[in-house]
Amino acid sequence: MEAAKDWFAHMGSVLASMMFVWAMFGQYFPCELRKYFEKHSKRLVVFFYPYIQVTFHEFTGDRFMRSDAFLAIENYLSSKSSTQAKRLKADIVKNNNQSLVLSMDDYEEVSDEFQGVRLWWSSGKNVTKSQVVSFYSVTDEKRYYKLTFHKRYRELILGPYLVNVLKEGTAIKVRNRMRKLYTNNCSRWSHVTFQHPATFQTLAMEAEKKQEIMEDLITFSKAEDFYARIGRAWKRGYLLYGPPGTGKSTMIAAMANLLGYDLYDLELTSVKDNTELRRLLIETTSKSVIVIEDIDCSLDLTGQRRKKKEKEEEGNSTEKDPRQKLEKEERETRSSQVTLSGLLNFIDGIWSACGGERLIVFTTNHIEKLDPALIRKGRMDKHIELSYCSFEAFKVLAKNYLSIDSHDLFATVSELLRETKLTPADVAEHLMPKKFPPDVEFSLRGLIQALEVAKEEAKLKAVKEAEEKEEELTGEPGFVTLEVK
Ligand SMILES: Nc1ncnc2c1ncn2[C@@H]1O[C@H](COP(=O)(O)OP(=O)(O)OP(=O)(O)O)[C@@H](O)[C@H]1O
Ligand SMILES: [Mg+2]
Predict the structure, then answer these.
(1) Which domain of life is it from (predicted)?
(2) ipTM over 0.90
(3) Residue 34 near residue 41 (C-beta atoms within 8 A)
(4) Which end of the chain is more exposed for a tag (fewer CB within 10 A), N or C?
(5) Has residue 278 been placed in a domain?
(6) Å from CA of 361 to ligand 2 middle
(7) Whole-model pTM?
(8) Together in a domain, 196 and 172
(9) Neighbours of 362 (CB within 10 A)
(10) Ligand located closest to 251 CA
């Protein structure tokens, strides 16, 4: 097939040369003869050269903006170029890992296959003298990729194949891009490079739970067709809850890293009203995680229930002065301009118009404070509890911080962790090596001591609470006996 293509290509160039000669000297022939020759020479070319060529130029229209199709093809061909081309160009892409991207040099060719059909991509460039007046000689180089395939496969290649090339190429481009962390201030998103090292591998949590969350995320990221078919916006809501220091923010960074998404950290307290909230959310790009941290503290997001309760209290209010009342009302309208319903409208699919996938993640330390309307299933697709450090989670931290899988002191740690509540953040702090290489035993003994102190404190707290309860019941100071094990 390669040989046949070469032969056809050769014939094509012979014919092209004939056409060139004809273009140069054709004018000296009589008009009738010229028309006849032109008509039949095209047929001859088609007969001898049954291949179709499609050219994708680097610049189309705007000479400062590289064409999206060209960039997608460059990315699509990068893996094929690195295995097939003899001359390659290398460039460092400033993504989160500064990876090296290879592409074929000019006038190279690589082949590809699609549904059993072979086709070829070649690269080239048009060099023109620049119109710009300059001391140095300036030339304009416009590169292009040329796709060659047999005319028999016109529909397959111009349809599904090219769609696939552009889709895959764009996905590689997105994967290789520099990711961003956006924050909202003064009604606008501003961004910095997102470079957080957290991964699910280093996240301390039970392996099974971790696996389930990762699978859920990956399934979501690949479910474009599914969401389109069922007519739902391609988005998924997560609610992460648990005490401070249990890894909620760390997990969000790990989620963004796993999927290669950008991160939008939405600070609700600096959003003026629902209109601004709508605009900020619409401005988010696809392949992003939108995070609203500590929703219980952000605003009056607990909805109607709390408002109703406040109204009831207001009935018994002592503010008789109308001016004071007015001020209070003004204060309330100002603070409640971003409402629960405003937020839920977006979550319920208003932004389906935006297209592209988005994850929305809420975090809270107090799930019990949230209105059930906000957290019912369907609105938040997945509720994830991050809790105190279990032995399994400890083992992940021990591996991360001390590079150990087991130790004689693990049994003591395991027993103490079962009786005590220490957050992964606290455990991590004790495992953090004070020198390198780390003194494993010293770190583990430090952790054991902290666990014992926490255990004692918890016992004393329980005694105090019991005494207060007894005092409440009897009106007498209570004494509870501490059972020592
Ligand atoms: N599950 C965990 N796995 C690995 N590291 C953790 C975990 N939980 C906490 N840490 C460590 O503790 C630090 C604090 O954790 P993080 O900020 O994720 O907690 P949080 O749950 O978001 O707390 P808050 O509710 O206060 O926002 C992190 O920098 C991380 O190093
Ligand atoms: Mg946090």
Answers:
(1) Eukaryota
(2) yes
(3) no
(4) C
(5) yes
(6) 12
(7) 0.74
(8) no
(9) 27
(10) 1
